[in-house]
Amino acid sequence: MGxxxxxxxxxxxxxxxxxxxxxxxxxxxxxxxRWEEKIKTPGIVMYLKKGGSDQSEDQPFMRTExxxxxxxxxxxxxxxxxxxxxxxxxxxxxEVAEKQPFDGGSKTIAFSYVKNKKxxxxxxxxxxxxxxxxxHNGKFYRYSTSIDHSEDALKPLPDGQTVRGFTFYNAAIxxxxxxxxxxxxxxxxx
Length: 190
What we know:
Layout: H1 7-20, E1 36-41, E2 44-49, E3 61-68, H2 74-82, H3 84-90, E4 94-101, E5 109-116, E6 124-136, E7 139-146, E8 162-164, E9 170-176, E10 183-189
Parallel strand pairs: 6-8
Antiparallel strand pairs: 1-2, 2-3, 3-10, 4-5, 5-6, 6-7, 7-9, 9-10
Helix pairs in contact: 2-3
């Protein structure tokens, strides 16, 4: 994918991913594949697109588009969504959530670990990722990706029944819509 790990490089990559994998993008034949609506609740719509990408043809894309009330504060929403102590409060499938700053307390770069409970016949899944979170020109940006071979030494699997999931990338933008004041949040994951 060719990500430049600078603020400008990450902003460009995240904006390109979110625009390219937009349901409105009809110019890119790969992206023109239909997004299938999977979940729709007031303020949140989740889509799935099969067919993969140049990263992986087998792993589908997920796209979430959320609208939050203009009375909400963006920094508080971000804490609820991304801070482990809050995630467990709203995600009932989450068994473990941890966040470890990359260097001496950095809030921009961190490792995150989550383990989801086993559901029906699906094994429990866990993810170990490195992530970059920052604000630029009033918008929040996030880019994260799994850490290759993390089950070896960095973060061993917790048990023999958990499967290590792999995130090729997770790109997100949160911004306040100037006309309505609502907070718009879009996330694309493969």
